[in-house]
């Protein structure tokens, strides 16, 4: 508790006043548990605490008569129910979240005075919310879209929100364009279609008229927009921020999250099917991973640009449509984040969490990126209508672990009961408390970076923001051939859904042709349009021609196949020993092995034992697994060869380039299916075959198979 001071001492002494400690921080990890009651052994009561005798029948005038208005129990229940919904987020409505912690790798005090980045012993609780952008709350998880990657760090010095995406750039350069962009991408106003996607006229109308979107749109047409898992995405703070050390030295930084699981995606056909077969694929995957102890991990890194180097690049650091290629400024890792606890209640935690890029702590500051500057206003503002007023910081998931004493009072849904008379400052009644803390090297009050501004008030875009194509080109040229083909197909699919031909033409001729003529020609061919002969603007030559860090083929992660789902397809007559051998072999790599049968009923092994299955091949279709194996057992192979369900499962897995293995007798099954062995389609269940399978699964898919897989029906 604060010690009483004389009224004229305006500042608290930093030490000893409400200093948060580790116990306080750890308490945050438990705090939601404290406010939750699972009500075991408790009587059913009204909100006013009255015990309820009958929760089945309304009070009536006679058992067949009208209901009585005086039934306060029924009215309270129905009234509460009538108001259960709150507005969903305007964007990023569909999401899921998890708790975890952040731990610094060392003392980064040369960069920042932010305490959570200085002490490797310090465990800082975090809550992360992942989201899609376009779709409403009930939309599919696997649609083509940008993914939100918002992290709330509950630091001892206050909450720090890093509200980023899984792509390092954005569609627009100035926040004033955000409502236009969102109105264009959201379902169209006259018919509320499409749900969860950008393949429609208004989106392409807007982006084809706004060339600054070109870079972000090519990311959105790449495999990054169809992630295999939320655990397999990079995250980016997007804007340039500042880190400030105790001496007041500022460096520009870009924040990066690097997943230990690597960066992996699904194929487009797969993504579309998944949206139907399991709308909740990503939230389920995250929840199951955490439940089974496969805690997802990311390293937090920064690209650091000293203040003096601000203008040394071909692009403007303040332009959010630009990356700093990692080949120019490598990412320095600062620490790691581990997600290790699922929310107990989706609404209380995931739905009510309120992020804001303006939530920063001493040692971190904003840059003048005009998109970031606008965001600083928007997020708090939107919470006023979503969460019903300015007290949303008192909702458990939003409460800082740092104390937050001030003279703000009242307003709707106030939880805190403030004692005392003085809710103003200066005051002498309460000894002048709570008091300001002067800025200082460490533990000081927040101080904005003393940037010198000497300018005219203007509504202008800096000339240094005018190149919209060189980095989109760098991105396309840095992709593998496979990734480039996926991008061409994505543009072709999306523009194919655009009804107005002039919009298709404008995107091809005025945007794609400026990125890359071959890309434009390939998309034009798929749309039946003439290939453009030249771009419409002179694109500056970017010194760097390739950035390998942009291709996810170069981002396999560090944990191999840990947590990957491998299906063993079983049927009556399967060789139990083969099932055991394979299970052990894959589990040794920390993969998750699932036995899938023709139905959910157990199958009988060749030696007559009952073998329980995890699911049927229908219940867990091939799009939900990463690889498969058919264990030994002639009768089981024959049964699979005669099952349309099993054949479809195998062909679809093959089409989606998944690693597959079959015991030696699987040759006949392959012939039935018309499939040939390849690098990732293996025969035999010996150690060598298993190791080859694991090696291919580490590369995620059998990329060499793509041409052969074209012939397989979708
Ligand atoms: Fe935003 C939500 C990310 C630009 C206005 N945004 C929101 C979320 C993420 C982002 C991850 C979901 C947070 C959550 O899980 O609750 N937004 C971004 C990124 C941007 C960006 C990476 C550009 C670099 N956003 C942006 C601009 C504006 C907004 C320019 C307004 C001027 N964003 C919002 C919002 C949302 C939001 C309307 C909707 C719900 C919410 O904030 O809490 O205020």
Automatic annotation (TrEMBL):
Catalytic activity: 2 H2O2 = O2 + 2 H2O
Residues involved in heme binding: 89, 129, 178, 375, 379, 386
UniProt keyword annotations, A-Z: Heme, Hydrogen peroxide, Iron, Metal-binding, Oxidoreductase, Peroxidase
UniProt protein name: Catalase
GO terms under cellular component: cytosol
Enzyme's top EC category: oxidoreductase
Physiological role: Decomposes hydrogen peroxide into water and oxygen; serves to protect cells from the toxic effects of hydrogen peroxide.
Composition bias type Basic and acidic residues, residue spans: 1-13
GO molecular function annotations of the record: catalase activity; heme binding; metal ion binding
Region entry Disordered, spans: 1-26, 425-447
Domain Catalase core: 45-433
Pfam families recorded: Catalase, Catalase-rel, Catalase_C
Active site: 92, 165
Taxonomic lineage: Bacteria, Pseudomonadati, Pseudomonadota, Gammaproteobacteria, Pseudomonadales
Biological source species: Pseudomonas cremoricolorata
């Amino acid at each position: 508790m604060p010690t009483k001071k004389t009224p004229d001492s305006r500042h608290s002494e930093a030490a000893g006043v409400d200093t948060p400690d580790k116990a306080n921080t750890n308490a945050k990890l438990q705090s939601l548990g404290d406010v939750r009651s699972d009500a075991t052994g408790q009587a059913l009561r009204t909100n006013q605490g009255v015990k309820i005798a009958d929760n089945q029948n309304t009070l009536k005038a006679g058992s067949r008569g009208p209901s009585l208005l005086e039934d306060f129990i029924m009215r309270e229940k129905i009234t509460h129910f009538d108001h259960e919904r709150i507005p969903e987020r305007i964007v990023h409505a569909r999401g899921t979240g998890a708790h975890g912690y952040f731990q610094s790798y060392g003392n980064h005090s040369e960069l920042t005075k932010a305490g959570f980045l200085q002490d490797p012993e310090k465990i800082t609780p975090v809550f992360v919310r992942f989201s899609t952008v376009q779709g409403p709350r009930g939309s599919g998880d696997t649609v083509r879209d940008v993914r939100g990657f918002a992290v709330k760090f509950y630091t001892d010095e206050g909450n720090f929100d890093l509200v980023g995406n899984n792509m390092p750039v954005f569609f627009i350069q100035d926040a004033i364009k955000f409502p236009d962009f969102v109105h264009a991408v959201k379902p169209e106003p006259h018919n509320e279609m499409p749900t969860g996607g950008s393949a429609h006229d208004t989106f392409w109308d807007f982006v084809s008229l706004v060339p600054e979107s070109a870079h972000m749109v090519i990311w959105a047409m790449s495999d990054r927009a169809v992630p295999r898992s939320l655990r397999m995405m990079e995250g980016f703070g997007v804007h340039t921020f500042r880190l400030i050390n105790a001496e007041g030295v500022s460096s520009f930084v870009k924040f990066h999250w690097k997943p230990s699981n690597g960066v992996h995606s699904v194929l487009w056909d797969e993504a579309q099917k998944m949206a139907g077969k399991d709308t909740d694929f990503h939230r389920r995957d995250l929840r199951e991973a955490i439940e089974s102890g496969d805690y997802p991990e990311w390293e937090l890194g920064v690209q650091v640009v000293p203040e003096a180097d601000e203008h040394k690049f071909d692009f403007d650091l303040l332009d959010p449509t630009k990356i700093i290629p990692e080949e120019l400024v490598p990412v320095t890792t600062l620490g790691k984040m581990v997600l290790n606890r699922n929310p107990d209640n989706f609404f209380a935690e995931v739905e009510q969490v309120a992020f804001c890029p303006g939530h920063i702590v001493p040692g971190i500051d904003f840059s003048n990126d005009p998109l970031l500057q606008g965001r600083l206003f928007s997020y708090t503002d939107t919470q006023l209508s979503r969460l019903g007023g300015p007290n949303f910081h008192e909702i458990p998931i939003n409460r800082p672990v740092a104390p937050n004493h001030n003279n703000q009072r009242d307003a709707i849904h106030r939880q805190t009961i403030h004692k005392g008379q003085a809710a103003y400052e200066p005051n002498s009644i309460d000894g002048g408390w709570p008091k300001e803390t002067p800025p200082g090297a460490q533990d000081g009050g927040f101080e904005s970076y003393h940037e010198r501004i000497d300018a005219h008030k203007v509504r202008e875009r800096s000339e240094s923001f005018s190149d919209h194509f060189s980095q989109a080109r760098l991105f396309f040229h840095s992709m593998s051939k496979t990734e480039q083909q996926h991008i061409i197909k994505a543009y072709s699919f999306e523009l194919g859904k655009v009804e107005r031909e002039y919009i298709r033409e404008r995107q091809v001729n005025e945007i794609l042709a400026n990125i890359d003529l071959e890309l434009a020609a390939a998309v034009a061919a798929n749309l039946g349009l003439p290939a453009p002969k030249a771009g419409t603007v002179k694109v500056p030559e970017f010194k760097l021609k390739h950035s390998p860090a942009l291709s996810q083929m170069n981002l396999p992660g560090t944990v191999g196949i840990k947590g990957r789902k491998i299906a063993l397809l079983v049927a009556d007559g399967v060789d139990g020993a083969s099932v055991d051998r394979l299970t052990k072999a894959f589990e040794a790599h920390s993969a998750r092995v699932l036995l899938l049968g023709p139905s959910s009923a157990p199958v009988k092994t060749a030696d007559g034992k009952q073998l329980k299955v995890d699911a049927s091949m229908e219940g867990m279709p091939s799009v939900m697994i990463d690889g498969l194996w058919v264990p030994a057992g002639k009768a089981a192979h024959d049964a699979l060869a005669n099952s349309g369900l099993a054949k479809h499962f195998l062909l679809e897995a093959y089409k989606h380039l998944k690693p597959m293995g079959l015991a030696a007798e699987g040759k006949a099954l392959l012939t039935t299916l018309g499939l040939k062995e390849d690098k990732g389609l293996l025969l035999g269940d010996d150690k060598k075959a298993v190791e080859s399978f694991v090696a291919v699964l580490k590369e995620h898919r059998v990329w060499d198979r793509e041409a052969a897989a074209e012939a397989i029906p979708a």
